[in-house]
Amino acid sequence: MKIATWNVNSLAIRLPQVVEWLSAHPVDLLCLQELKLTEDKFPLEALQAAGYGHCAVFGQKTYNGVAILSRHPLENVHRNIAGFEDEQARVVAATVHTPAGPLRVVNGYFVNGQAPGSDKFAYKMRWLDGLRQWLAAEMSLGAPLVLVGDFNITADDRDTHDPEGLRETIHHTSEEREQFQALLSLGLVDAFRLFEQPEKSYSWWDYREMAFRRNKGLRIDHILVSQALQPRVRSCVIDRAPRKNERPSDHTPVVVELDLG
DNA sequence: ATGACGGTGTGGCACCGA
Description:
globular
């Protein structure tokens, strides 16, 4: 089973690139963030034609919006964080059945947070608190779980091109990294770090100042798996290729392969 | 360098992202 996550920064603009990528990488599940469209504008037919006939969509006009594209039926679809009031469409979860049993998939577009001390940063912290509490309940149900998405957090200094210059700035603060560790403390593992990875591996690069060509990026798109799945993780890679497209998203896909029999 | 680049909206720029 292959699961990918990709912040596409507008599905309306990026749909051709998504379809092209799926034809070359026919993953079982593709979790998208920043759809920037409402559900009535979701390109269901094009994705069905690409083999993704089962989609869990949570859209919103202009901002945010998440979806799980699947080759397999999805059950128990849940939108946003249970127990946390949120006007923004940032989370969609679903259960997919595998030969090894049900797998819970949670796809999140985490809050950006703008700057430490801002109202948006406070919202980010509250949102992360709510997510963690809900995930604790989800995990207590017993099914293995995968948490994917645009976390908008660098887990540690390896995840940033400038650890000194960006210390304690947004995506790099101690508070955000403590929240990331608190998610791991629920019993989750960073699938990417289970493997030896190239130095300076990032998943996002600013559109400005030729950041991609200079590899001035951040690793902020993550795939966490519950500990029971750790021995089942066969690979976890960042696919930089779509960032070289014309009119690319500023993020690029991350893919995990699970051996579930 | 409170900028750059790119997306959205009902726009002539402002807001947001990271």
